[in-house]
C-alpha cells in the first residue's frame, strides 16, 4: 500500500518505519525542514532501541521517504495517518489545533477517496470534528478512522510489529477493509484487530493509559503505607501480582509516572469527564498522588539532613522518565532537580540518553557527568531516579571511595536490602525499611 504519515514525532516515525518494514511505500511529511533534511540523510532524531536498523534498511530500499511537501506526500496515498501533537491546554484538555489544521490542509488537496487515520491520542468526538473539517473543505469522499497507538517507549518497535491488539474505530466498510489489509502482517499469530465505532476507539486509548496510571499510583500509596507500618512493598507486590485477576505489571512502586502519555492522557480524560458533568474521582486522586510522589525523594532528603540542603552536593543517576528512552517529558527527575535547586543544593547528573535534552532545558543550572562514577565523585549522597540497567549492579567498592558518605536514596528500589546492610550503606528506598 501507499501510505502517508503526517508528523514525524515519536509515534509518527515509529509508525512510518514499521509500516515500511512490511513492504508498504511510506512517505513521512513534517513542516520542520531541518528535521526532514536530517532524516533524509539517514539520521534519527529520537532514540528508540531497534528503530535505527529498520529506519536505515527501509530508506536504503526506498520504501521510506521524508518530505516537507504535504501535497506530494498524500497524492497517491491510500491511507493518511495523522501523528501530530495533542498537548494539554491550560485547562488540561487536549489541544487539537495541529490535528484539525492538518485535516483542513489535506481536505483542500485530495482528489480521490482517502482513509484519514487519527493516530494521535485524541478526546472522544475528535473523529467527528475531523470529518466536519474535511466536509467543509472538499466534496471528495473520505473516511475518518480512529486508530490509537499503544507503543511503550523503549520497546515501541516490538510493540508495533507484534501488538497485543490493534484497535480500529470506523463505521466505513471500505476503510475497515483497507485497515484490515494493512494490519494483517502484524497479527498473524492471532492477536486481534478489534473493530469498533470511532468514539469507543478514542475512549479505549484514554481508558487504557488511565487504568495503568491508576495501578502505579495505587502501588505508590501502598508503598507509603508500608513505610509507616513496617511492611515491604516488594513483598506485597509479589503477593498481589501472583493473582491473575490483578497481574504483575505496573505494580512497581517508585517516584511517580512521567513521559508523554500518562500525565497528559489522565488529565485529558478527567477534563473530558468534567466537560460532560461527570466527577471522575479516581482520576483526580491518581493525579494528586502522582504529583506528591514525584517529590518524595526530596522529602526524604530534607528529613535526613534536618531540612537543610543548602550547599549539599548530590549525584543523580537517571533523567529520562523511564529507561531505554531519551524522553524527559514530565520526568520525575526534573521535579526533583527544581526542588533541590530551590533548596540551595548542587546537582551532578548522569543518564545514558537523556542528558542532551536536559541540558537544552536547564543549561548550566546543574552539572553533567561523563559516567556514573565521575558523577558520584565528591557527592554527599547518590540519588537513583531512573532504573537503567547499568545502575543495577554498580561497583559498590569504587562508589564507596567516591562518595563523601555511603548514602543512597533510591527512587526505583534497585538494590537488595541485605546487600546494603552488608556493605554498610545508609539506604533509603520506596516502601521498604530504611537501612541505617
Features:
436 residues, Rossmann fold, six-stranded parallel beta sheet, 18 helices, EC 1.1.1.22, UDP-Glc/GDP-Man
Description:
The model has no long low-confidence stretch (mean pLDDT 96). This protein is an alpha/beta fold. Helix 6 links the parallel strand 5 and strand 6. The chain folds into two domains: 195 residues, Rossmann fold; 195 residues, Rossmann fold, CATH 3.40.50.720. The chain has 18 helices and 14 strands. Helix 9 crosses helix 11 and helix 9 packs across helix 12.
Which structural category do the helix and sheet elements fall into?
alpha/beta
Largest sheet: 6 strands, parallel
Low-confidence stretches: none
- How many structural domains? 2
The percentage of residues in β strands lies in 5-15%
CATH topology of the largest domain, anyone? Rossmann fold
**Rg on CA atoms, Å:** 24 Å
Mean pLDDT: 96
Catalytic activity: UDP-alpha-D-glucose + 2 NAD(+) + H2O = UDP-alpha-D-glucuronate + 2 NADH + 3 H(+)
Pfam families: UDPG_MGDP_dh, UDPG_MGDP_dh_C, UDPG_MGDP_dh_N
Domain UDP-glucose/GDP-mannose dehydrogenase C-terminal: 315-417
Active site: 261 (nucleophile)
What is the topology?
Layout: E1 2-6, H1 10-21, E2 25-29, H2 33-40, H3 51-60, E3 64-67, H4 70-74, E4 79-82, H5 97-107, E5 114-118, H6 126-137, E6 142-146, H7 156-161, E7 166-169, H8 173-183, E8 193-196, H9 198-229, H10 233-241, H11 262-275, H12 281-293, H13 296-304, E9 313-317, H14 332-342, E10 346-350, H15 355-362, E11 367-368, H16 372-376, E12 381-384, H17 396-402, E13 407-410, H18 417-423, E14 426-428
Parallel strand pairs: 1-2, 1-4, 2-3, 4-5, 5-6, 7-8, 9-10, 9-12, 10-11, 12-13, 13-14
Keywords: NAD, Oxidoreductase
Binding site for NAD(+): 30, 35, 86, 121, 153, 264, 329
Pathway: Nucleotide-sugar biosynthesis; UDP-alpha-D-glucuronate biosynthesis; UDP-alpha-D-glucuronate from UDP-alpha-D-glucose: step 1/1
Amino acid at each position: 500500500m501507499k501510505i502517508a504519515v503526517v508528523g514525524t514525532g515519536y509515534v509518527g516515525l515509529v509508525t512510518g518505519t514499521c509500516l515500511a518494514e512490511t513492504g508498504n511505500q511510506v512517505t513521512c511529511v513534517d513542516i520542520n525542514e531541518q528535521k526532514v533534511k536530517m532524516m533524509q540523510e539517514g539520521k534519527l532524531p529520537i532514540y528508540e532501541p531497534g528503530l535505527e536498523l529498520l529506519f536505515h534498511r527501509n530508506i536504503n530500499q526506498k520504501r521510506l521517504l521524508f518530505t516537507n511537501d504535504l501535497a506530494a506526500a498524500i497524492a497517491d496515498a491510500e491511507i493518511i495517518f495523522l501523528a501530530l501533537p495533542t498537548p494539554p491546554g491550560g485547562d488540561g484538555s487536549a489541544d487539537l489545533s495541529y490535528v484539525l489544521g492538518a485535516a483542513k490542509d489535506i481536505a483542500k488537496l485530495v482528489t480521490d477517496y482517502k482513509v484519514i487515520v487519527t493516530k494521535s491520542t485524541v478526546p472522544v468526538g475528535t473523529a467527528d470534528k475531523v470529518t466536519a473539517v474535511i466536509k467543509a473543505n472538499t466534496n471528495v469522499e473520505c473516511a475518518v478512522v480512529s486508530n490509537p497507538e499503544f507503543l511503550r517507549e523503549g520497546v515501541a518497535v516490538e510493540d508495533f510489529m507484534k501488538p497485543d491488539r490493534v484497535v480500529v474505530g470506523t463505521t466505513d466498510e471500505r476503510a475497515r477493509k483497507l485497515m484490515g489489509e494493512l494490519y494483517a502482517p502484524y497479527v498473524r499469530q492471532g492477536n486481534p484487530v478489534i473493530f469498533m465505532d470511532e468514539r469507543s476507539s478514542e475512549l479505549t486509548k484514554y481508558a487504557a493509559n488511565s487504568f495503568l496510571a491508576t495501578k502505579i499510583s495505587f502501588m505508590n500509596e501502598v508503598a507509603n503505607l508500608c513505610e509507616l507500618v513496617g511492611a515491604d512493598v516488594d513483598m506485597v507486590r509479589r503477593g498481589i501480582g501472583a493473582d491473575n485477576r490483578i497481574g504483575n505489571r505496573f505494580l512497581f512502586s517508585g517516584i511517580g509516572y512521567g513521559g508523554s502519555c500518562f500525565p497528559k492522557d489522565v488529565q485529558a480524560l478527567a477534563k473530558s469527564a468534567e466537560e460532560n458533568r461527570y466527577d471522575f474521582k479516581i482520576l483526580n486522586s491518581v493525579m494528586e498522588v502522582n504529583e506528591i510522589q514525584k517529590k518524595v525523594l526530596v522529602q526524604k532528603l530534607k528529613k535526613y539532613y534536618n531540612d537543610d540542603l543548602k550547599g549539599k552536593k548530590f549525584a543523580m543517576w537517571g533523567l529520562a522518565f523511564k529507561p531505554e528512552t531519551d524522553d524527559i517529558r514530565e520526568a520525575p527527575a526534573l521535579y526533583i532537580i527544581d526542588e533541590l535547586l530551590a533548596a540551595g543544593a548542587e546537582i551532578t547528573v548522569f543518564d545514558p540518553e537523556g542528558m542532551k535534552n536536559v541540558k537544552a532545558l536547564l543549561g548550566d543550572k546543574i552539572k553533567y557527568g561523563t559516567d556514573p562514577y565521575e558523577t558520584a565523585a565528591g557527592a554527599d549522597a547518590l540519588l537513583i531516579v531512573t532504573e537503567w540497567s547499568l545502575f543495577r549492579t554498580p561497583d559498590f567498592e569504587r562508589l564507596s571511595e567516591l562518595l563523601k558518605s555511603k548514602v543512597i536514596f533510591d527512587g526505583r528500589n534497585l538494590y537488595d536490602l541485605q546487600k546494603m546492610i552488608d556493605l554498610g550503606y545508609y539506604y533509603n528506598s520506596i516502601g521498604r525499611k530504611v537501612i541505617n
